[in-house]
Amino acid sequence: MTTDKRPLILITNDDGFRAKGINELIKALRDLGELVVMAPDGPRSGMSSAITSLVPIKYKTEWQEEGLTVYSCTGTPVDCVKLAINEVLDREPDLLVAGINHGGNMAICVNYSGTMGATAEGCIFDVPSMGVSLLDHRPDADFTECCRLGRELAEKVLQKGLPHGTYLNLNVPTDIPVKGVKICRQADGRWVKEFKRSEDAGGNPVFWLTGHFRNDDVHEDNDEKMLDEGYASLVPCKLDVTDYEFMQELKDWMA
Amino acid sequence: MTTDKRPLILITNDDGFRAKGINELIKALRDLGELVVMAPDGPRSGMSSAITSLVPIKYKTEWQEEGLTVYSCTGTPVDCVKLAINEVLDREPDLLVAGINHGGNMAICVNYSGTMGATAEGCIFDVPSMGVSLLDHRPDADFTECCRLGRELAEKVLQKGLPHGTYLNLNVPTDIPVKGVKICRQADGRWVKEFKRSEDAGGNPVFWLTGHFRNDDVHEDNDEKMLDEGYASLVPCKLDVTDYEFMQELKDWMA
User: How far apart are CA A72 and CA A80, in angstroms?
Assistant: First the structure.
């Protein structure tokens, strides 16, 4: 299955293996290498880096053709990556691509996104890893421009690799043509007014997650701003979340 | 409920409101302020920063006494924090404490942990936030030393606050007495041999998450090493995962 000499590319997402985004991505990357897809069997948006520990997970082959195998998995996006690399693939992937997500994963969304959780997980295994998201939630969104930019980036990552502990977050706006790709920082901001109150059948209050993003970032190069202006944003991200700057002050606290 | 002038302390966890760890924490922080607990109604370990968007969430009052209200919530640890701050509390908390987790959240576990997901979420709301974990998974673990250190840190955070975008990850070993608290970096390493293969009733393979941590870090001050040596580890963490060092090279790639 994964015995040819071409690059081995592991693909996953959080919208499930049936989503248009991942299937467009498969087509876009098809001739770059041997493709193995291990994706959730249904929607897993907002799963972040969640892992399944209380129940076991399973996977099955959905379809297979020359140079492409598609598996579905009962777990989270991170479970998919762990399972593929630990149990299914017979060699280390040369690249992991997560997406294409239906909806943006800029700013603090990198924290909640299952797509970006899977991307970080690839990076934990030292696989050069990138997430790709389109700022359009619709099931029938047009991924053409996003596929073009995702493929260009995948080729670069295959060629150059990535530093240990670094992964990439590419977001693409819906404005056509995209003005270009800007290297950005993760915008500082948060979601506000996050719940819509409703009622269950018994008249008890229930809360649906909703809200809108408030951008508090003052830097020109924050991803949310660049996307607003019609650019694709590319943020290099780190696994190591240590706040090195604050370590000394904290040492003084504890002295 | 939250109208007194004492500090308002929001408490959550990922083991559920019935766990010993959170109840010991409540006792340890009881006289530091007005306590509001919003915790999952059952175990949510390994939920990272997962959010619930496909179904609504609910909460209910479990018990209430002078200066303490305990709510349970059907959602994830991050849902608990979002719901409390958006819909339940009548003022911003002065401190969020997540834990005490049954089991360590050092090294890359910060990425998977629901306890640390909740802590990061408090930080997103600009609430000074800290997670506390004991390296003992047992339901009846002894939290005495961990409570002492958690309370000391909570008092410091209440007094000094934390920088915007920074939260704290305190892990406490089981060796008594703890040698002290070391300010650490997040250890670089990963989990290996992560699945145990088993079979379902029909003889199909299923995979249970397991594995052990491999520490690849060469620095003296990594949290895993310090815990091994009998110290409690305190890692300051950042919400912003941008890899600023790699931005220029990435710009050169795309030029």
Answer: 8
Q: Which residues of B touch A83 (CB under 8 A)?
A: 195, 207
Query: How do residues A99-108 score in pLDDT, each as one tens digit?
Result: 999 999 999 9
How far does the CA of residue A58 sit from the closest CA of chain B (Å)?
5
| Facing residue for B110 by CB, picked from A51, A58, A241 | A241
Helix axes A144-160, B244-254, angle to 10 degrees: 110
Helix axes B20-29, B144-160, angle to 10 degrees: 50
A108 touches chain B (CB under 8 A): yes
Nearest CA in chain B to A126: B190
Four-CA torsion A143, A33, A43, B72, nearest 10 degrees: -120
Chain A residue nearest residue B122, CA to CA:
A190
| Position A17 pLDDT exceeds 60 | yes
The confidence score (pLDDT) of residue A254 equals 87
Judge: A242–B235 Cβ closer than 8 Å, yes or no.
yes
- Cα distance between residue B163 and residue B240, in whole Å: 12
- Residues belonging to chain A: 255
Whether B253 sits inside 8 A of A50 (CB atoms) is: no
- Looking at residues B180-199, what average pLDDT do you find? 96
Task: Give yes or no for a cis peptide into B56 (omega within 30° of 0).
Answer: no
For the record, the structure tokens of A205 come out as 């209050």
Query: pLDDT over 70 for what percent of chain B?
Result: 98
Question: What interface predicted TM-score (ipTM) does this complex get?
Answer: 0.95
Q: Indicate the residue of A43, A79, A246 with minimum beta-carbon distance to B236.
A: A246
User: Residue A44 carries which side chain, given as an amino acid letter?
Assistant: R
User: How much helix, strand and coil, in percent to the nearest 5, is found in chain A?
Assistant: 30, 30, 40
C-alpha separations of B2 from B85, B97, B128 in Å: 12, 17, 18
Q: How many CB pairs under 8 A join A and B?
A: 190
Identify the H or E element spanning A73. strand A68-73
Given 3-state DSSP classes, what are the helix, strand and coil percentages for chain B, each rounded to the nearest 5? Answer: 30, 30, 40
Q: How confident is the model over A176-209, as pLDDT tens digits?
A: 899 999 999 999 999 999 999 999 999 999 999 9
Residues 65-84 of B with CB under 8 A from A: 78-79, 82-83
Q: Which residues pair with A183 in a beta bridge?
A: A234
